[in-house]
Every structure is written in structure tokens, then in C-alpha cells.
Amino acid sequence: MRAFRIPITAIITALALSGCMRTTGPVALAPQDDLDSLAYGQPTGAPPPAVATSSGSGAVGAVRAAFAAAPRAAAAPVAVPAYAEPVAVRHDTPYHLDAGDKLRVVVYGQEGLTNTYAVSAGGSITMPLIGSVAARGRTTAGLAGEIAAKLRAGFIREPSVAVEVEAYRPFFILGEVAAPGQYPYVPNMTVESAVAIAGGFSPRARRDRVTVTHTDASGTARYVVPPGSAVSPGDTVLVGERWF
Q1: Containing domain of residue 141, as a range?
Q2: Domain count, the chain
Q3: Tens digit of pLDDT for each residue in 170-202?
């Protein structure tokens, strides 16, 4: 009988210990959309994770629940560069003279005064008898009136003067073109024709938009424009490089 008592006692003890090992405790369970919670944070106003009893250790579940319930900092907004739309250039508007323009000045009946004059870096032309005449910012009609007024003041009784642009000041094209540099301006020029004059785009050029720097009486402005945009005398066209 003693031989049978020892195994029975061992079996009873093992069963008792097994029952102790199976004691359960509260374990935090994440809801089914736990992956969304882990990735994006707990939605506003959402109920807290349910607490249920489960076998095994609850440390991992508790950590997961605490991580899911932790507030997420809002992502900082990404600044998107805004590109100013260029002011439309109308080719029928009066042209304003500036340094680099070559002018044909005709004084009727006065061959000694009729000639081609270049607008200097200072913005003026120099003629016989009357000397320096300011041309920068004037139209051709305005400059003709100024020349006539100076000639009328002690030189010619009733002068008749006409001024026309013989050659516009050049434009500049830089960046990803075959031959960047300075070129004579052609009336009604666009970005596309300017690129063509410079030999076309380089293989790395960004072709959907370019940067145009324009200066007029109101100051200097820089625009990001599509290839069909107008170019004025003295403008600088910059063709950028694409990154892909």
C-alpha cells in the first residue's frame, strides 16, 4: 500500500501546483484596429481599450495599451512654395527706353542731327547742339518731344523730330541651355523662342517652367513662368535643372 501512496501523493501535488500556475490576472487587450491606433494614435473621443482577463503575463499587453493611448503630436505643416503669376506683357503697350537700346533719331531738314544714337549706361543719348538728353523710362514719342523742345530753345524755330527703336537692348539667358549668354531681343519674344535662340534646352533642363527677372519703372521682380510667357528687352531668363 505504501508503494501506491507515494505516486498518488505526487500526482495530487502536481495537480495542485498546476492549478496555482493557472491563476489569471487582468490583462489589457488592444481593440481590433490596434494597428491603426499604434500608427496614428488614439482617435479623439474614442473609448479606452477594454480590460479583460487572460492567461499568461499581461506586461506586453499593458505596454501596447499604454503606447496606443499615448497622445500623438500633430505633424507640422509643410510649407509649399507659392509661385507668383507673372503680369501679362502686352506687346501693343508703349515701350519704355533704357540702357542698351539703339535709336534712330530723325530731325527733318537737319542731316547733321539725324543719326543713330545708343542709350548709355546712364540712360541718356548725346546729340550735337543740345548735348545729353535723358531717355531712360521715356517712350519714343516722349523722347522726340524732349529733343524738339531742346532744339526749339535757341537752335531751330520749328523742329520736326521722330524717334524709333533701331535695335532693342539685349536679353540674357542662363542655366540649362546649350549656349547661355546675351542675345539681341526680337519683338514679341517668348521664353520658348529665347531658349531656341540659345541653342535649345540641355539634357538636364527643367522644361515646364523657368524664372524670369524683369525690371521696369516699378522696380525689379522675379517670376516663375511657363515656357509660353512673354520676354521683354533686358529680361534675364534662368532655366533650372531637373532633379529626376
Answers
A1: 102-167
A2: 2
A3: 999 999 999 999 999 988 899 999 999 999 999
